[in-house]
Amino acid sequence: MISNRIMQSEEKLTKEDFVSDQMVKWCPGCGAHAILKAIENVFPEIGYKKENFMFVSGIGCSSRFPYYVNTYGVHGIHGRAAAIATGVKLANPGLSVWIATGDGDSMAIGGNHFIHIIRRNLDVNILLFNNQIYGLTKGQYSPTTPIGSVTRTSPHGTIEHPFVTAGLVMGAQGTFFARVPDNNIKLMTEVMFEAARHDGTAVIEILQNCIIFADGTHSQITDKDLRDDFQLHLKHGEPMLYGKNKEKGIQLKGQKLQGVIVGLNGVEMEDILIHDRYEKNPGIHRMLGKMEPPDLPVAMGVIRSAEFETYDDMIEVQIESAREQSDIKCVDDLLKSGETFEVD
Questions:
Q1: What is the Cβ-side half-sphere exposure of residue 22, based on CA atoms within 13 angstroms?
Q2: How far apart are CA 334 and CA 326, in angstroms?
Q3: What is the reported pLDDT for 2?
Q4: Percentage of residues of the chain with pLDDT beyond 90
Q5: What tens digit of pLDDT does each residue of 45-91 get?
Q6: What is the SS3 assignment for the chain?
Q7: Residue 249 in contact with residue 241, Cβ under 8 Å?
Q8: What is the pTM of this model?
């Protein structure tokens, strides 16, 4: 639900209200341009006052974001956006806090902060630009680079097993996880709106294309001729169908998900799994998050949106309780507490 602690705008805002006067300095063709457009589309729809939006970033191409949105923002240091955002949100719960980060910024140097902000379930929104490479520093492999990839720092092919973002988020007890491709602005906008409605840490993995150092890294999923067969667009309460004519579906067989064709080998529509993004047990969500070609499509949209208590709500309750139980109500009380004496 949209937080009632954040001030709603009395006037109808438009996307132009959030367009920055700064020159956007991403490479032509970079997927980040589409992500920026989605943010400009969704912020007016969320309905908060403009001054109640806050962007925090670390270091990387994604981390230029605070300059390009006409809101308050902090351009932090490498990997520390989650830590800064935690302080911002706890100091001012009336802010809608958004984190712009990349796969290197969040899962390498910032990995510890990333898993702990998710574990705590602070009410913030994380936009994770996953281009499977370090772009700003010119093409080193990242924690999500596919094994075997030849990069500037792996000339013979990387031998490191990459993170599966969904598995990392849900392993850290994540309450909201979504995935979108950068070439679908409409879906990005819808998912960002759902992230804003979620009370807790919302992680959106954006499959972004780096046209310079990892061009086509997501092409098996995003290419026009392939996306129908390799993208499963999830909608809560609806069967998990994909394919050009929605003739394919996902079936739970024992403890595994498998792709099937409706009407073939005795498979009927009622055999197709129904998506429940609000289920608190993350079992199916984890399996959906880890699906990949060629055997299965990649799940897109909101995979998980479970409601649990948030860190910021619980800490406010704890502070209030401590105040009620303490004899110290102000600084004067503190200074006069304990053993004191007066000097004549």
A1: 14
A2: 10
A3: 56
A4: 89
A5: 999 999 999 999 999 999 999 999 999 999 999 999 999 999 999 99
A6: CCCCCCCECCCCCCHHHHECCCCCCCCCCCCHHHHHHHHHHHHHHHCECHHHEEEEECCCCHHHHHHHECCEEEECCCCCHHHHHHHHHHHCCCCEEEEEEEHHHHHCCCHHHHHHHHHHCCCCEEEEEECCCECCCCCECCCCCCCCCCECCECCCCCCCCCCHHHHHHHCCCCEEEEEECCCHHHHHHHHHHHHHCCCCEEEEEECCECCCECCCCHHHHCCCCHHHHEEECCCCCECEECCCCCEEEEEECCEEEEEECCCCCCCHHHCCECCCCCCCCHHHHHHHHCCCCCCCEEEEEEEECCCCCHHHHHHHHHHHHHHHCCCCCHHHHHCCCCCCCCC
A7: yes
A8: 0.94
| List of domains in the chain | 15-217+309-317 (3.40.50.970)
Residue 321 pLDDT: 93
Written as six digits, the tokens of 180 are: 């979108």
* Cα separation, 300 vs 291, whole angstroms: 10
* Distance between CA atoms of residues 35 and 49, nearest Å: 21
Looking up tokens 């589409």, which residue turns up? 34
- What interhelical angle do 81-91 and 111-120 show, nearest 10? 30
Q: Is the pLDDT of residue 124 over 70?
A: yes
